[in-house]
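Run log // design_07
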């Protein structure tokens, strides 16, 4: 994106007296473009663009992107963003302030939002730079997650769907996770011979862990993909949630399996009481399979940071293999 392409967007969001003098593409974002506007008065703002040209996922992977009835369909789009922003703002959960939302394409040929550019850094950068000082921020993030977990609903699914009285596909969270994990296993095994060699054992382990899970009828509000790269830290040390389009009512164990993976040695700050260990064990294996199949699928496109995605595949494939019980002799 250039200054000329986003000048009209800036005027609509910030007023005619402020003009961009430069545009910076920000790191991250595999489904939308994220750009910082540098303004003539020294201010800044951030633009989200949901355009096909900004989506690195292959077309076959995004065919059901607008099927909000599937909780695991791609969490991308202005509608999902706005529903999540409304829900979190009503709770008092800090997210970047919304300055403009436009799906009319009056200012640019794509759905877009302009939001506050939160001064500070990502929690990921904070943890790398000064992990010893991160405890207060992590404690505040734990409080945010606790507040979200206290928001419950009798149905699971994306907030954009649930808030409009919609009904998600699937009979339960655990059945959805099992179906998705089996599909991820099949797809990844076709791409990696190491997984193909143990496919039957992984499938049996998935079914065994799923069988241990007991039914549930209440679901909590979860971010859906909350790593330290999806949290900003403002100048007051407050955590600010971004990439919120995946917000949904679901099992909190699904969120915490991801938190445990992404926060690693810092996860103890975020650990929650009352989580079901059987769901955690089942979702842990399913999540690892998702983080093998998903990156391999993404690499079918032109995603630029290929080395990073391959590292994600290798790490999670190792976790899948380590989760398997010892192979039994054929005559056992």
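design_07 sequence
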């Amino acid at each position: 994106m250039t200054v000329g392409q986003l000048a009209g967007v800036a005027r609509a969001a910030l007023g005619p007296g402020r003009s961009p003098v430069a545009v910076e593409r920000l790191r991250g974002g595999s489904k939308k473009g994220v750009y910082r506007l540098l303004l003539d008065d020294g201010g800044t703002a951030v633009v989200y663009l949901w355009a096909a040209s900004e989506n690195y996922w292959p077309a076959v992977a995004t065919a059901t992107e607008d099927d909000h009835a599937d909780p695991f369909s791609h969490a991308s789009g202005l509608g999902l963003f706005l529903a999540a922003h409304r829900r979190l703002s009503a709770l008092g959960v800090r997210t970047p302030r919304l300055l403009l939302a436009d799906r009319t394409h009056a200012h640019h040929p794509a759905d877009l939002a302009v939001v506050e550019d939160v001064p500070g850094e990502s929690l990921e950068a904070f943890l790398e730079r000064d992990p010893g000082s991160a405890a207060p921020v992590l404690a505040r993030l734990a409080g945010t997650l606790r507040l979200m977990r206290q928001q419950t609903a009798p149905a699971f699914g994306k907030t954009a769907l649930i808030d409009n009285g919609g009904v998600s596909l699937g009979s339960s969270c655990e059945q959805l996770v099992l179906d998705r994990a089996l599909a991820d296993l099949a797809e990844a095994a076709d791409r990696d011979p190491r997984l193909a060699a143990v496919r039957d054992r992984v499938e049996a382990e998935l079914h065994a862990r799923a069988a241990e899970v007991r039914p549930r009828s209440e679901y909590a509000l979860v971010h859906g993909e909350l790593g330290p790269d999806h949290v900003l830290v403002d100048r007051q040390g407050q955590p600010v949630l971004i990439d919120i389009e995946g917000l949904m009512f679901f099992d909190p164990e699904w969120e915490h399996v991801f938190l445990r993976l992404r926060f690693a040695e810092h996860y103890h700050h975020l650990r929650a009481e009352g989580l079901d260990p059987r769901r955690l064990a089942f979702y842990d294996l399913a999540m690892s399979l998702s983080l093998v199949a998903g990156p391999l699928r993404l690499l079918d496109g032109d995603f630029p940071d290929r080395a990073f995605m391959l590292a994600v595949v290798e790490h999670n494939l190792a976790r899948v293999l380590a989760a398997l019980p010892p192979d039994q002799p054929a005559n056992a």
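The longest strand covers residues 33-39.
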